[in-house]
Design goal:
elongated; disordered N terminus; 19 strands; alpha+beta; single chain; 4-stranded antiparallel sheet
């Protein structure tokens, strides 16, 4: 009984094997006439492009600080606001600064009054100052009296003591005139000093309104209403987003291909379907010894502020280098376990050939190694193919 059971099992296995062989034969026979479309590997002119990863950054970024001490009276702008150059950001309480400016104005008016200047006009020349005018007249009269005394003395009509008196009067008048001129110069210097103090007080009064240094956005607010700030205390951080700066590193082998002014396209994850344009504006003169790459800096217009600083960007730089490259359709490449193959037809059967790919060129791809120009290859549906399959080949129209 046991023996007959074993025989039955063996018979069952033999019958199953026979069925499997029959199906394999049928499948092989069905594959003999598998139609495939062929295309010859083509040589095309390829304009080289350099693909790198970069980072977007603000072209200008500054922390705005207070220039005078004061209490924050009003926040004119806050986080995220767009501000034009010169727009008020924060207003400090101006009361004390106003008093100081008024005091300097009064001191200047007093100095101008002592000098003899009226109103806001230009200062009169030194010889028009009242004290100088008076001493000038006295000096002229003393000079005239001295000349007359000398003339009379020469004719023995005036005593020597009277001549000496006239000389003394002249010397006194001249000293008084010199003193008046010195005082006038001092008054003029005082007026200039008071004018400078007044301009400084007025400038401090204007500085109570803290303004944006350039067109940009408020990236950070650092003070609160009512807070007292000292000079040089940071109050806001402003960034300029148009244009943005793009920094990246390019492998050293591409150094001959990159130059300033070269156009580039930029893609970011936030806008996957949109392409932004820019240009290369700066190139580092040396190569980084660790990365064996050199730094470049690009400029990307951003008038609407869509792009944000700190964003990673995929950058493609089009160069003037044009090479003759062997290209095939992307659909002709079968990728398995890190290797790429194409299929050629030999004696009605297909055979795989390993290749090394170069740059992607739209719907085509460059073949760097493993395939000669003009070699016919299977152009479509290669994922279902395997070495040794029998096929019937038809030519595929080239584009």
């Amino acid at each position: 009984m046991k023996l007959s059971s074993t025989g039955a099992a063996i018979a069952l296995l033999l019958s199953l094997g026979a069925c499997s062989r029959d199906r394999g034969v049928q499948a092989a026979e069905g594959q003999k006439a598998r139609p495939v479309r062929m295309e010859a590997a083509q040589v095309r002119d390829v304009r080289r492009e350099v693909d790198v990863i970069g980072t977007l950054a603000a072209r200008e970024e500054v922390v705005v600080s207070a220039e005078v001490a004061g209490r924050v009276a009003r926040l004119v702008h806050d986080l995220g606001d767009r501000v034009p150059a010169g727009a008020p950001l924060i207003e400090l309480d101006p009361e004390k600064l106003q008093y100081r400016a008024e005091g300097q104005r009064a001191a200047l008016d007093q100095a101008r009054a002592r000098y003899g200047a009226s109103g806001e006009g230009d200062l009169p020349p030194l010889d028009k100052v009242p004290s100088v005018v008076s001493t000038t007249a006295q000096l002229a009269d003393a000079q005239q009296q001295l000349d007359r005394a000398k003339n009379l003395s020469a004719r023995n009509l005036l005593s020597r003591s009277d001549l000496e008196t006239a000389q003394t009067r002249f010397d006194t008048a001249k000293a008084a005139h010199d003193q008046a001129m010195a005082s006038a110069r001092q008054l003029r210097a005082d007026i200039e000093a008071q004018s400078s103090s007044l301009r400084l007080a007025q400038r401090e009064l204007r500085d109570a309104v803290i303004r944006a240094p350039f067109d940009g956005y408020v990236a950070e607010r650092l003070v609160s209403p009512g807070q007292f700030v000292q000079p040089q205390a940071p109050v806001m951080r402003i960034v300029r987003l148009h244009p943005l700066k793009l920094t990246a590193e390019v492998p050293e082998k591409f150094a001959p291909w990159i130059e300033t002014g070269r156009g580039m396209t930029v893609r970011v994850d936030a806008y996957p379907t949109q392409v932004f344009s820019g240009r290369v504006v700066r190139i580092a003169p040396g190569v980084n010894l660790k990365s064996r790459a050199f730094a470049i800096e690009g400029e990307v217009p951003n008038p609407d502020g869509k792009l944000k600083p700190g964003t990673f960007a995929r950058v493609q730089i089009t160069t003037d280098r044009v090479d003759h490259a062997i290209t095939i359709p992307v659909a002709a490449v079968q990728s398995r376990y890190g290797t790429n193959r194409v299929f050629v037809v030999q004696n009605g059967q297909i055979a795989g050939r390993e290749i090394v790919l170069g740059d992607r060129l739209g719907e085509r791809v460059e073949v760097a190694q493993g395939l000669d120009a003009g070699t016919p290859i299977v152009a479509t549906d290669v994922e279902q193919l395997a070495d040794g399959m029998r096929v019937t080949a038809t030519a595929m129209a080239t584009k």
